[in-house]
Design goal:
By secondary structure, this protein is an alpha/beta fold. It is built from 19 helices and twelve strands. The strands form two sheets. Strands 1, 2, 3, 4, 5, 6, 9, 10, 11 and 12 form a ten-stranded mixed β-sheet that branches. It has a two-stranded antiparallel ribbon with strand order 7-8. A hairpin with a 2-residue loop joins strand 7 and strand 8. The longest helix is centred in the middle third of the chain and has 21 residues. The relative contact order is 0.06.
């Protein structure tokens, strides 16, 4: 039976490292940890699990630290984890079979990143609702998955590269060795950290990414990583766009850079500029789904309703049920005169849990287009409840007023003023509604 060892780096991880090591202790015969300067009990806890802890000075280079731990390994196979991760409980029944495959050098594993938010997008991946598969993530709102080689053979030509977002995939492919996907889940809890800690970490990671692109200016991956960081974590669209454009200069077929470039142009209201970046063949279902969704959004912004309808319908082929896409498609169908089918889609999407303001907003717009004002008012009230804002209360009150339902209109304006007492538009509308109610 091939042997398996755990190789990892850690610094001040006394709060996380015990559950991480506990998740692998029954399936590994060696644990090596490169400690990059802990001042807490990380090393002592690790040694309690039988780990060999080596001291490695931190040089702002993740690959260097991981390779230091890797050099001390003696097992046939290596598992790589972070201290804030745990291996899924099913691993013991899966890994032995994987390690017996003679022509495989490494396996790409799905890593679940749990987040507090109920809705999340990361790159071309859309978050999934938390299914409570792991009790430690019970408070998470959702998770997104990224895939990375975390299980690989120990041999000299396999090692980590990259100052940040380090990986072994490049050396495995350079050696013309085989990589295969494996259904073996890793749980990552890093995004559940306190917000102030995460902010410091993100700023530090961005600094490392900036160093990486200076050192490796011709590597499109570094520019793509930096673009994602600027866009997702810092909402810096201009800088993100420049990074993605550089990535595409180096690799015109980089799917992630193409998708993000289209997203940014859509954010900027430049839908016509987004469409050319979506003219590619998607390599997998997640990127195909994202591509079709963005195409639908772009065509909608350009008032090309038939083309948008085709794109949204294509997107639904890559997912089981998606209320967001269903509601966008439903509103388009109503606008195209396909009212029965469109309204069914919209009402079905609005009934999904958890309720989403944007979906109820589209339902409200469809009701208005169909002159179904009582239903439109109910949908508008739902939006005001889910996402309170002075404009949301004004709109719901206005729809009631169009039906001359003055009391309901006044009631909503009072609710809005209770939440936003200094909103001048609400104050003016409420004063006017009182005059109309008395008359």
């Amino acid at each position: 039976m091939p042997t398996l060892g755990l190789s990892m780096i850690a610094k001040n991880e006394e709060a996380n490292i015990a559950p991480c090591l506990a998740s692998v202790k029954d399936i590994v015969s060696q644990i090596v940890i490169a400690d990059t300067g802990s001042t807490d009990n990380t090393a002592e806890i690790a040694r309690g699990f039988g780990a060999t802890v080596i001291s490695h000075p931190w040089t702002n280079h993740f690959a260097d630290a991981r390779n230091a731990a890797l050099r001390a390994m003696t097992t046939d196979w290596v598992l790589s984890l972070d201290a804030d991760e745990e291996l899924d409980h099913s691993a013991a029944g899966v890994i032995p079979t994987l390690m017996r495959k003679p022509h495989i050098a490494g396996y790409i594993l799905p890593v679940r990143n749990y987040t507090p938010a109920k809705e999340i997008r990361a790159g071309s991946s859309v978050g999934q609702g938390n299914d409570s598969r792991h009790p430690r993530a019970s408070a998470a709102g959702s998770y997104f998955v990224y895939e990375k080689c975390r299980l690989f053979r120990r041999q000299p030509d396999i090692f980590f590269t990259g100052r940040i977002h380090e990986q072994v995939e490049l050396t495995i492919r350079a050696a013309k060795l085989n990589l295969r996907p494996a259904v073996l889940c890793i749980h990552n809890f890093g995004l559940l950290e306190r917000h102030e800690d995460m902010g410091k970490k993100l700023t530090y990671y961005r600094d490392l990414l900036r160093l990486r692109v200076q050192e490796e200016p011709d590597d499109f991956r570094g520019w793509t990583y930096l673009g994602r960081m600027e866009y997702d974590s810092f909402n810096n669209r201009g800088e993100a766009l420049r990074n993605f454009q550089r990535a595409l200069e180096l690799n015109p077929g980089c799917v992630e850079a193409l998708l993000f470039t289209a997203m940014i142009y859509l954010d900027l209201g430049r839908a016509q500029d987004a469409i050319p970046f979506l003219n590619f063949t998607a390599p997998d279902d997640p990127s195909a789904l994202q591509k079709q969704c963005l195409l639908g959004d772009a065509f909608s912004q350009c008032s090309q309703l038939v083309e948008a309808q085709i794109a949204y319908r294509a997107a639904l082929r890559f997912c089981e049920i998606d209320p967001e896409i269903e509601s966008k498609l439903g509103l388009l169908e109503v606008k195209l005169g396909q009212t029965n089918e469109g309204l069914r889609r919209l009402e079905r999407a609005a009934a999904a849990s958890p309720p989403k303001p944007a979906i109820h907003d589209r339902l409200m717009k469809a009701y208005v287009l169909m002159n179904m004002l009582p239903q439109a008012a109910a949908a508008a009230e739902c939006v005001a409840t889910l996402a309170p804002h002075p404009k949301a209360f004004l709109r719901a009150a206005s729809i009631h007023a169009q039906s001359q339902n003055w009391e309901q209109s006044a009631r909503l304006l009072r609710q809005g003023l209770n939440l936003f007492p200094n909103a001048p538009d609400l104050q003016a509308a409420y004063s006017e509604s009182m005059l109309l109610t008395r008359s």
